[in-house]
Design brief:
The complex is a heterodimer of chains A (about 80) and B (about 280).
Chain A lengths: L7 H10 L1 H6 L3 E7 L6 E7 L2 H10 L6 E5 L6
Antiparallel strand pairs in A: 1-2
Chain B lengths: L7 H18 L3 H18 L5 H12 L3 H17 L3 H18 L2 H17 L5 H15 L5 H13 L3 H17 L3 H18 L2 H18 L2 H10 L10 H14 L15 E6 L1
The chains are: A alpha+beta (about 80), B mainly alpha (about 280).
């Protein structure tokens, strides 16, 4: 959740800055889902564990509320 | 991150953080050392301290078994974090001190530090910090037989829900060692096997080695020397130069206990991945 609508260009610049750190931790950014008011965002990563994503985000000073592991569910 | 950092201060932080990442992951420690030399030179020139420098220095000394030096760097990092009211790094510096003391076998001091760690952990954002602090507290209590195996299990289950595999591998392998001391061989095997699984997913050489050693010791306790030798053999495929002094010592004592040399079976590494989401 962002107090102000998120600046997607600034966020992308931070993501790019974090690429080296993410690579070291085995984290690959996939894509994000952004709400129309740009105050909510869900980012999808491939990673060995949730902690790798927390560490990479903390190092790069990328803002986040929480990180959790998930598997893909598709309706039958 | 480093090549994009423009000013001295940004470059200092970028170099220090990159060194911290490499040392935490036990990857290319030579490169980490050279990044730290450059970071320290900038730090001295501009009169600014980056907390990742003493933490990474401490991790390198710990890796090489120079525990007194490592302690000094972690204490310095703790001082900087407290001065700057930087709770995340205060937790990080204390966490390294606690785990260092545990690996030294100094549970009295580890337990005293864990009290502070739990307090800070409670004030941090959602994540694995507070659950890990509680696991370390439970480990300390279990080591002194003041806490039970089931208390440790409960704390570990909470940590597992946060999906922090390195912290889990550390806790499970040390917990397995305590199980063995208390004569709980099946429990030790269960924990050491889980530690190995987590360490292998992350590809952390020292934790993989420590888990194999623990499983080897479990088999010796059972009197199954053939299986103990299989675990010892698996150690020869590990990344020797990146193994910590603690892991090398554990391998040495397992080999000594078995009274034989390593016999060269390679060791696999399943780098499984899964989706991880962040909510911003």
């Amino acid at each position: 959740m962002f107090e102000q609508p998120v600046d997607l260009d600034a966020m992308q610049a931070l993501e790019k800055m974090a690429q080296g750190c993410m690579k070291l931790h085995g984290v690959t950014f996939q894509h994000s889902y952004v709400a129309p008011d740009r105050r909510r965002m869900i980012c999808i990563y491939l990673a060995p564990d949730a902690e790798a994503v927390r560490t990479a985000n903390n190092t790069a000073k990328l803002p986040y509320d929480r990180v959790w592991s998930a598997s893909i569910f598709k309706p039958a | 991150l480093i090549s994009r950092a423009s000013g001295d201060r940004e470059r200092l932080v970028a170099l220090a953080e990159a060194a911290r990442c490499l040392t935490m992951l036990e990857r290319d420690l030579g490169k980490a050392s050279s990044l730290l030399v450059e970071a320290s030179a900038i730090s001295e020139r501009i009169g600014v301290e980056a907390i990742a420098v003493p933490i990474a220095e401490g991790l390198i000394h710990e890796h090489e078994g120079r525990y007194a030096h490592a302690s000094r760097f972690f204490l310095h990092a703790l001082e900087i974090a407290r001065r700057d009211r930087d709770r995340e790094n205060e937790f990080s510096a204390l966490e390294h001190l606690v785990t260092l003391r545990m690996d030294e076998g100094n549970y009295v001091e580890a337990n005293a530090l864990t009290v502070q760690l739990v307090e800070i952990g409670e004030k941090l954002r959602e994540g694995s910090d507070a659950p890990f602090a509680r696991v370390l507290r439970a480990l300390g209590a279990y080591a002194n037989e003041m806490g039970s195996a089931s208390e440790l299990d409960r704390a570990l289950a909470e940590l597992e829900a946060c999906d922090a595999k390195h912290r889990l591998a550390f806790s499970l392998s040390r917990g397995a060692g305590m199980d063995l001391t208390h004569g709980r061989i099946d429990m030790a095997e269960r924990r050491a096997s889980a530690a190995l699984r987590f360490a292998e997913i992350l590809g952390r050489p020292s934790e993989i080695a420590l888990s194999h050693c623990m499983l080897g010791r479990v088999m010796i306790a059972r009197g199954d020397l053939d299986r103990a030798r299989e675990y010892a053999a698996a150690l020869s495929g590990l990344d020797g130069p990146n193994l910590s002094s603690h892991a090398r010592a554990a391998i040495g004592s397992l080999i000594e206990e078995l009274g034989s040399g390593k016999d060269g079976t390679s060791h696999g590494n399943s780098g499984r991945r899964k989706n991880v989401r962040t909510t911003r």
